[in-house]
Amino acid sequence: MVVELYLDLFSQPCRSVFIFAKKNNIPFEFKKVSLMDGEHFGDEFGKISKIRKVPALRDGDFCLAESVAIMLYLAEKFQTPDRWFPADLRLRSRVNEYLSWQHMAIRMHGSKMFWMRLMIPKIMGIDVPKEKMDGALEDLNASLTLIEENFLQDRPFIVGDQMSLADLVAIVEIMQPLGAGLDVFEGRPKLSAWRDRVQASIGKDLFDEAHQGILGAQDAMKQVDPSKLELFKPKILRLFF
Question: Quick one: signal sequence residues (predicted)?
Answer without folding.
Answer: none
